[in-house]
Amino acid sequence: MSMDEQYQQMQIFTTTLMEFNGHLGASVNDLKKNHDHVSPLWQDEMRKRYDVIWGPFEEKMKYYLNVESQNYVEFLHIKLHALNLYLRGG
Known about the structure:
The chain has one domain. The protein has two helices and no strands. It has helices spanning about 5-40, 45-90. The longest helix is centred in the last third of the chain and has 44 residues, at about 45-90. The radius of gyration is 20 Å and the shape is rod-shaped.
């Protein structure tokens, strides 16, 4: 694969990652709304087991969406900029 093709693939990947992050954020928000809606009504033993999983999942999703996703995209933009300078001169 040539460096030009590599650059194009990185652009596509960056755009796709940004779209994925947007869709993931919307899905997590919908899930959270539904969770909050059902939460006061669901108070049984299964709920306790569910909360053990839900809490860490929610925290990891928040961290990814607020920190890691932005860091990944920023990293790719930096690499794309450097590769563009290499390919086009600068």
